[in-house]
Amino acid sequence: MRDSRRLPVRLALGASALLLAALPAAGQGGPPDITRENVELVGFAGFRTGGSLANNADELLELDGGTSYGGVIDVNLHKSNFKLEALYSHNQSGIKLDQFVSGSSLDIAVDYIQGGILQETGNEKTRFYASVLLGATLFRPAAFDSVTKFSFSVGGGLKIFLGKNV
Q1: Which residues contact 79 (CB under 8 A, 6 or more apart)?
Q2: Where do runs of H (alpha helix) occur along the chain?
């Protein structure tokens, strides 16, 4: 079980290394710059679905869904459509403790703080993107000490710009 937990970390580090290695080479005759903005700010709010966490005894604890909000800031490097990206996300949730006491749960706040790199391709109005972020996740259960763990995310998607500032 321990080796399977290292695989996502190795994948994230490998993807990060590839994106970071591409950055210097991209400045040498790369694709035309499709991004004119210097800084991009995005806020979000919503509902995050549940999941599971493994405790020290390798038991899975079920995580409830809950409200989520946060923001992203991208700083344009103006080199082959690369941007530096910083993310903050807060999730208010709960952990089901049925295996200990039937029907019980524990409130928990989860904060993600990550930074990394993003690259876009497309045109000024429609852009596909891929990103790799590394950072920390802070678990703050009610009435217990908080715990900080290494975290990463690999993402991708489509941005559609409806206007100059939207």
Answers
A1: 23, 26, 27, 30, 33
A2: 2-26
Alpha carbon of residue 31 to chain centroid = 26
Q: How far apart are CA 142 and CA 125, in angstroms?
A: 44
Predicted confidence at residue 78, as pLDDT, reads 86
Torsional class of 80: left (φ above 0), alpha (ψ -120 to 50), beta (otherwise) = left
DSSP per residue, 95-125: EE-TTTSTT-EEEEEEEEEEEEEEEEEE-SS
Q: Which two tokens stand for residue 157?
A: 């998607």
The one-digit pLDDT tens for each residue of the chain (166 residues) are: 444 455 555 555 555 555 555 555 444 555 667 777 899 999 999 998 877 777 676 777 778 888 999 999 999 998 888 999 999 999 998 887 776 777 778 888 999 999 999 999 988 889 999 999 999 999 898 888 988 999 999 999 998 988 776 6
CA nearest neighbour of 72 among 14, 129, 19 = 129
Identify the CA nearest to 140 among candidates 86, 94, 78, 79.
94
Which helix or strand (DSSP H or E) is residue 41 part of?
strand 39-48
